[in-house]
Amino acid sequence: MNRRLDTMAFLRNTWYVAAWTSEIGRDLFHRTILGEPVLMFRREDGQVVAMQDRCPHRFVPLHLGRLEGDTVQCGYHGLQFDTRGDCVGNPFDGKLPRNAKVKTYAVHEKHQIVWWWGGDAAEADPALIPDFSYLEDASKSKVPGYKHVKAHYELLVDNLADLSHTHILHRSNLGIDNPRGEHEVTQVGDVVHSRFWYPSIPVPPMYGRYLGDSDAVVDRWTEITWNAPGNIRLDAGVTYAGKSRGEGINAIGTHLFTPETETSTHYFYCHVRDFKVGDPAADESIRRWQQEAFHGEDAPMIEAQQQSMGGMTDLLALKPVLLASDAGAIRIRRVLAARIAAEEAARQAAST
Predict the structure, then answer these.
(1) pLDDT tens-digit readout, 99-125
(2) What residue stretches are annotated with the Rieske domain (predicted)?
(3) Residues 6+ apart with CB under 8 A from 323
(4) Parallel, antiparallel, or unpaired for β 231-240 and 217-227?
């Protein structure tokens, strides 16, 4: 199917990352997800609430209003809404229109993340949230971040599924000459694993700095685990050639992609490491790397890719040249397309 800008073909009955838990407090926080304006805040008891960021009266954004207790007051004419989206106050004449209702969404906090359900709230099962429990491991250091990217989210998933690009796009930190590696793609259910393995290579510059040995010969691995629709765990590291991974440097990259619209994405990331734990200098070094690589290299390249594709969001519909290293990205796209098609078929069957 050739997807254009107006189709909004997203998987609905699934969990999306709406925010890091630290982003949501007692202020009215808003973010567009799957093309829908979403308002989020914490109730006085600490629970997160998500509702449509639009007053049903004049359709102004509710985040321009204020929070009084657990009630949101529209900043235009003052209608008040409780956490169920019901209108509970009208300062003009006190009458409460029966159709003055704001849509609410299912949300769940887990692994330092606020998860938002994109479909029928009755089907929002927290057990379906992928396992990112390592984000709560106190024995590891973590450097989280966020980037808004002007591109379709599957292009960002492609970027992580094919990490052969790191030697070229991220050359100053991860590049080596003539990288020759092994690649394996496996699938368990709807979960896709894409593994790259580079035995006995010159140590990439960034890892050389961490090892304190820029002349080392190492084995390097990058292994991603993808859960629909855009949630990726990346296990990466190096060890001296022939040594066990436990003797080397290991890190976990968390890369979570939530569509804002068809051509823009919320990119949440977090670097989790078991070396130099608690070292502020190491934190700052990784933060600089994230800015250089994600903000300064990946995002501009993928945004340029989206611009080059024009109004298209389905890369495969353009019939690109495919390389062996694309196998993981292609598998992911096929799994996701099948899930979306099945969901649409079920929706159509239910409406007949």
Answers:
(1) 999 999 999 999 999 999 999 999 999
(2) 15-116
(3) none
(4) antiparallel
